[in-house]
Every structure is written in C-alpha cells, then in structure tokens.
Specification:
Blueprint: E1 15-18, E2 25-26, E3 29-30, H1 34-43, E4 47-52, H2 59-68, E5 78-80, H3 81-92, E6 98-102, H4 105-113, E7 117-119, E8 128-131, H5 139-150, E9 154-157, E10 163-164, E11 171-172, H6 174-185, E12 191-192, H7 199-208, E13 213-217, H8 220-230, E14 233-237, H9 244-248, E15 258-260, H10 270-273, E16 283-286, E17 289-292, H11 296-308, E18 317-318, H12 321-329
Parallel strand pairs: 1-4, 1-13, 4-5, 6-7, 6-8, 8-9, 9-12, 13-14, 14-15, 17-18
Antiparallel strand pairs: 2-3, 10-11, 16-17
Length: 332
C-alpha cells in the first residue's frame, strides 16, 4: 500500500473478505461478536465477501447457514474452494468429462454444475480427481483416487488445510486427507485451488471491482499467507487456529497487517491495530522484559514487531505484575 490508512479499520477499505471457519463460526455456532460485527458492516453499506476453503457446502448452503446464525449473507457473497475447483476443471476438460470426486455431496454437485460427470471409481476411467473435505471420506474412495491418479488422471485439491477449527479444538482438515494420497503416491497434487492460492481473493475483488480490499482470517498459513501473496492487507483475529505464539514466529510471507482479538477490531482505529514497535502501543521491551500497561493484545503487537525485527523474545518476562499478567493471558 502506498499510503497507510487512517481512522477506523472498516472505513479504510471498500471490501472486507472474510474467512468463515474460526472467524464467523466454529462448526455451526457463531463466534462471539461475529453476528454484531457483520450486521454493523451491512448497516453501513460495506461490501462483504466470504471466501472459504471448506468444500463441504455450496455457496447457497453457506449463505443459509450464516443467515440461520443471524449473519446477513447472500449466496453471491460466498466463494468456496469447491466451486472454484469445479470451474477450473470445467475450463480444462471437455464437456461431460468424467471426474472422480473425493469429498462431500456439495463438491459432487459443483462438478455437475461445471458440466462434468462425477464418478466414484477408478474403473470408470476418470480423467481427473478432485479432492475436498468431507466428513465421510474414507479408505475406499481414497484408494480409488490413488488408482486413478496413478493411471494418469489430473489431481486437483480444493485446499490443503491441515486442520479445521472446532469448539473442541483443531480437527483433521482436507490437507490431512490430501496427505494420505501424497504419501501413497509420493507426489503433490497437480493444482491446489483454495487459500493460500489467490483464486478466491481474485474472484472477490473482481466481483466487487474493489480498489482497497482487506482479508480477515484466523489462519496464518492460508488466509494471511494468501493475502500477502495477493498483495492485500489483512487482519488476523485470534478466534480460530493461529494463536499469539504463532503470530510471533510467523515468517514474512505469513505476517498480517493488523491483529485483533476478534471482529470487534474492525471498528477500532487503524493505528491501534497495526503491529508496531516499542512505546507505540503502551508497551515496550527492554533487556528481555515486557513493560507498560494496557490491553494484552496491544502487548502482543509490540512483541510480534520486536520478534520480526530480530529480537529474541523466547524467554520474555514481565517487568511488572501487569506485564506478567498480559504474558499469561497471551499464553507466552
């Protein structure tokens, strides 16, 4: 970005692109404050998009789920890796081409929508395999996929998220299932569609003709890495997978522009959300000790900035009781 934005974060951007799992909901329950934050954006006439790697629901189903949770959403605001993968196959293959589908019913329906023929066995001689998350994916269909790929079928993965956030903790995601085939085949998929690849973000920006979009996500390795790769600003919220220790250790290609506890941060001042150094957040680091006062998330911004500048914060201690309490709140 050429000029740093000012004022409230949401006011500085013309499109907010939300991840879903871990940002808007966990499983089928809304994240605290998410409904109110999205409703507030809608009331202000802000453009919104939802970009999800989860391939187990179609856009209309996602919109229905969001609406049921109290989050205003329309199907044309939702971009899924399942739909994007099916469109990619539709562009590459002849009409009616046979595609072995590994995943949920939603992915199969997207393949049909793309003018292709879904099959479930390598014996059907599919010309491609598309693999997405599905709760019922098991050994039988994975074995069929391995046989098809070995026979020369194109292998497309909707995403490679290792885990899915849930109220009970991280659960195996599509990346874990892709790893089964990667191990069996000793090779990578021919193409991965979802984040951190830029496809979903590019579709969202093009749809809204946005000049200044921002990505909001909970994962450094998909949402934030994808935003960095696409040249977009990003906000990491700590309601899902990535946590303070992950932010501090983030490599350059996974570093967000801003960090907030949750989506309420969209309505905070940009300057308070930026990851900045000593003294600018009310906190400072000196000789391996954190000192200052205020919100622990503000302390996290200072710690992350110091770590990214090369300061060793691995044994950081609190100079005061308040600082020690902030470190404990951050799990550091």
């Amino acid at each position: 970005m050429s000029t740093p934005p000012r004022g409230r974060l949401a006011d500085a951007y013309d499109l907010v692109i939300f991840d879903l799992d871990g940002v808007i909901y966990l499983s089928d329950k809304a994240v605290a404050g998410a409904v109110e934050a999205v409703q507030r954006l809608h009331d202000q006439g802000r453009s919104i998009a939802y970009a999800t790697n989860n391939a187990s629901r179609r856009a209309a189903e996602v919109a229905d789920l969001l609406t049921g949770l109290g989050v205003p959403a329309a199907a044309d605001e939702v971009l899924t890796s399942a739909a994007a993968a099916a469109r990619r196959l539709g562009d590459r293959l002849d009409p009616g081409a046979r595609v072995l589908v590994v995943g949920a019913e939603a992915l199969r329906q997207e393949v049909v929508e793309a003018g292709l023929t879904p099959v479930g066995s390598a014996d059907d001689q599919p010309v491609a395999v598309v693999q997405g998350y599905g709760r019922d994916v098991g050994w039988v269909i994975l074995a069929e996929a391995a046989l098809a790929v070995r026979a020369g079928a194109l292998w497309i993965a909707t995403n490679t998220d290792r885990t899915l956030p849930s109220p009970r903790g991280p659960l195996p995601g599509n990346g874990s299932l892709v790893a089964v085939l990667r191990t069996a085949l000793d090779r990578e998929p021919d193409e991965v569609i979802g984040k951190p690849q830029p496809v979903l973000f590019e579709e969202a920006v093009k749809r809204d003709a946005a000049d200044r979009p921002i990505v909001v996500g909970d994962r450094l390795d998909t949402d934030i890495e994808g935003a960095v790769g696409a040249g977009l600003d990003s906000l990491l919220v700590l309601t899902g997978v990535s946590q303070p220790k992950d932010l501090i250790a983030a490599p350059p290609h996974q570093r967000p522009t801003y960090v907030a506890r949750d989506l309420a941060g969209l309505f905070d001042d940009v300057a308070t959300l930026a990851i900045t150094g000593n003294g600018e957040t009310g906190w400072r680091i000196s000789e391996g000790r954190l000192d200052g006062h205020g919100d622990p998330i503000a302390a996290l911004r200072t710690i992350a900035a110091a770590a990214w500048d090369g300061t060793d914060v691995s044994a950081l201690s609190g100079a005061t009781d308040e600082a020690a309490k902030a470190l404990r709140a951050l799990g550091l």
